[in-house]
Amino acid sequence: MKRILLINGPNLNRLGKREPHIYGHATLDDLEKDLRLFASQIGINLVCVQSNHEGVIIDKIHEAGDTYDGVIINPGAFTHYSYAIRDAIASITIPTIEVHISNVHAREEFRHTSVIAPVTVGQIVGLGLYGYNVAILAMLEKLGGKVEYVKIRETT
């Protein structure tokens, strides 16, 4: 079973409360629960962490290089200026995918540049929370796996 680390950066613990017109009403707990279920359906062990602290994120990236097959990261505002997180990603040999809930390219100008993107295998933006599912599928493909069919969410 492939192991993927999902890292959510600053303020993502405020999902469901922070700017719901941009980020929606689902909480980080809701998102992580849905993603772990989704990942397990396609043979992935997904471990989720969130931190508002740059050093904690860097430590998790370093650890991931030795214990995981891939990293998915939403670095939040660190996207635009954290050369330390960028260098941490560059220091590991496993693939990393950057994901953002909103379309950062359609928002404030300072959000248009990612210092993280050049050291990732891809960037997914603007698909809402579904972007995380896309990132998981893309990571599985990068790791040599295939998905024929999977139910993304239960509907009621």
UniProtKB/TrEMBL annotation:
Drop me one GO molecular function for this one: 3-dehydroquinate dehydratase activity
Tell me the organism: Litchfieldia luteola
Q: What is this protein called?
A: 3-dehydroquinate dehydratase
Q: Which family does it belong to?
A: Belongs to the type-II 3-dehydroquinase family.
**Gene for this chain:** aroQ
Q: How does it assemble?
A: Homododecamer.
Reactions the enzyme catalyzes: 3-dehydroquinate = 3-dehydroshikimate + H2O
Pathway(s) per entry: Metabolic intermediate biosynthesis; chorismate biosynthesis; chorismate from D-erythrose 4-phosphate and phosphoenolpyruvate: step 3/7
Q: Which domain of life is it from?
A: Bacteria
Name the Gene3D superfamilies for this protein. Answer: Dehydroquinase, class II
EC primary class: lyase
CDD domains the record matches: DHQase_II
Q: Does the keyword Lyase apply?
A: yes
Q: What does this protein do?
A: Catalyzes a trans-dehydration via an enolate intermediate.
Which key words are in the record?
Amino-acid biosynthesis, Aromatic amino acid biosynthesis, Lyase
Q: Does the keyword Amino-acid biosynthesis apply?
A: yes
Q: Which PANTHER family match?
A: CATABOLIC 3-DEHYDROQUINASE
**Active-site residue numbers:** 23 (proton acceptor), 100 (proton donor)
Q: Which residues bind substrate?
A: 74, 80, 87, 101-102, 111
